[in-house]
Structure formats: C-alpha cells, structure tokens
C-alpha cells in the first residue's frame, strides 16, 4: 500500500507543477476583454493616444507567448538547480517564485499605468513552472515505487485540468473591470500551502547519496516513500539502482573530461574574427569549418 509520504509528495508535486501549468495557461482567458481594456487605458496615460488594434493584438499575443518561452528557460535551468540545490529545495524555490509572479500580475491593475508588470509577473511565474515541471518528473522517477510511478506521473495531467478549471470558475466571478486581478490572487494562498506540504517530505535518496554520501539517510528516505522498514529487501534493490545510476553518471563525466580537444593559443573570437592574427593551420581549419557551418544553416 502506498505510504503517507508518497501520497503527500504526489499531491505537492501536482500542485506545484501540473496545477500551476493549467492555471497560468488559462488565467487570462476569461477576463481577456478587461485586461485588454486595461492595457489600452494604460497606453493612453503613457503615450496620450489609444493603442491601435494591430499593436494591441501584438501585445496580447506576446502576453500569451511569454508563457511557453519562459517555461522553456525554466526547464533548461532545472537540471542545474536539481543538481545544485536538490529536488526538495528546487521545488520550494520554484513554488515560492509563483508568489511574486502572481502578485505582479494582479497588482499591475492598482499600479496603473504599469501594464508591463503583467509581462514581468507572467514571465517569472512561467519560468518557475518550467523549473517545477522538470523537477517533479525527476523526483517521481527517483522516489516512487515502480508499481505506482506511472499513476503519479499521469496525475500531473489531471492537476493541469483542475488548474484550468479553477481559473474558469474564478473568471465567472471576477471578470469585471474592477475585479479581474482577483483571478490571480488566490494562487498566492495555493503556493503557500504547497510550500508547507514540501517541508516535511524527505529529499530524494539519490540526491542524498550524490551530495552527502549518507547511505543510512538515503535508506530511511526510501523506506518512508515505499512504506516499508529500513531493512526491507526492496530497499536494498532500490539502493543498488541508486548507486549504479550515480556510478554511471561519474563515468560519463570522466569520459567527457578525457575527450581529446583541439589546442590553439588563440581565443575563439580571435580565430573567427581576426584572421590576420590567427594564421596557423589549426586556426584556419577551425575558422573555415565554422563559417562553412554558418553558411549551411543560412542557406
């Protein structure tokens, strides 16, 4: 039977990842007319004339597009954050970033004509979601028992739908010129509750092994997630998988270090843009190959 720890982890990751993704994607859909009117009114205050329809459509498109773009950057940063801070601290950091991101979106109305805060808040919020989504996947793979791992991963999709449904419900109540910021504010409370849920949860056993080399603590964390005793045979099997994964990572890192490299006394900028200085055969070969690659991509 799944343990209390794995249930708590599953709910916490659903709230921090899938739910937030659905929330961010849909939160501006219901009150879009009110938000567009606010942007137009802010534009009049700043520039003295109404915004053109084409420009308004462009601004609105960017407000939507900055969500997937910022999410991608968050996903790219996630690998670094997970390795440096661990799965638990990365989850707390990402969830904490939801709060300023949400507040900036909502408070922009009351700091009129600073409609740019909508973009800043949405970018922070989306970046945090990208970070959280990758971290959630890593944490599930490393901690969930194999028999419920797929179920935990699929719950992210359910949470995403719930996040979208929540914004639709809030939109019915708050899609007016005065109340549309309240579509954002409830998410601050959700993020605070989410952070509190992460605090009692164990760190990933694999990170404990990688960072601290504490076998006893890693076994204790695994036992908590799997709902069994520390001496259980299944824990031995999972610990071997952890050790093999860490060892494989070290070997891959060593192989990368040992790969032969082309040595030259000149910097990359000198080789590419200062041919009168870097005249040796190695530099010429690198320069010709690099510019050939550029031309192939262009044409």
From TrEMBL:
It is a multi-pass membrane protein. Pfam families: Sugar_tr (PF00083). GO terms for molecular function: hexose transmembrane transporter activity. It is found in: Membrane. Keywords: Membrane, Signal, Transmembrane, Transmembrane helix. Residues 10-299 form the Major facilitator superfamily (MFS) profile domain. Coiled coil: none annotated. The keyword Membrane applies. GO terms for cellular component: membrane. The keyword Membrane applies. Its main location: membrane. Residues 1-18 form the signal peptide. The chain crosses the membrane at residues 58-78, 90-111, 123-146, 158-176, 182-202. This is Major facilitator superfamily (MFS) profile domain-containing protein. The lineage of its organism: Eukaryota, Metazoa, Ecdysozoa, Nematoda, Chromadorea.
């Amino acid at each position: 039977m799944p343990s209390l720890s794995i249930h708590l982890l599953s709910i916490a990751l659903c709230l921090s990842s899938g739910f937030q993704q659905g929330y961010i994607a849909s939160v501006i859909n219901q009150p879009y007319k009110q938000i567009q009117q606010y942007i137009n009114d802010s534009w009049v205050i700043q520039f003295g004339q109404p915004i053109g329809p084409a420009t308004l459509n462009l601004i609105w498109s960017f407000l939507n597009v900055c969500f997937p773009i910022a999410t991608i950057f968050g996903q790219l940063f996630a690998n670094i954050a997970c390795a440096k801070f661990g799965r638990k601290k990365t989850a707390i950091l990402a969830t904490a970033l939801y709060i300023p991101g949400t507040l900036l979106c909502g408070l922009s109305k009351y700091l009129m004509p600073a409609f740019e805060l909508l973009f800043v808040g949405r970018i922070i919020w989306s970046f945090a979601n990208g970070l959280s989504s990758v971290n959630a996947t890593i944490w599930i793979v490393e901690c969930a028992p194999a028999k419920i791992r797929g179920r935990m991963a699929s719950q992210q999709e359910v949470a995403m739908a719930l996040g979208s449904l929540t914004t639709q419900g809030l939109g019915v109540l708050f899609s007016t010129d005065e109340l549309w910021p309240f579509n954002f504010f409830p998410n601050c409370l959700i993020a605070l509750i989410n952070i509190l849920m992460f605090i009692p949860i164990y760190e990933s056993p694999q990170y404990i092994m990688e960072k601290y080399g504490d076998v006893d603590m890693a076994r204790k964390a695994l036992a908590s997630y799997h709902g069994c005793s520390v001496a259980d045979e299944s824990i031995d099997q999972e610990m071997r998988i952890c050790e093999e994964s860490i060892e494989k990572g070290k070997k891959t890192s060593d192989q990368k270090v040992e790969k032969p490299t082309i040595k030259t006394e000149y910097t990359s900028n000198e080789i590419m843009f200062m041919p009168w200085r870097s005249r040796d055969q190695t530099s010429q070969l690198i320069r010709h190959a690099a510019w050939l690659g550029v031309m192939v991509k262009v044409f």
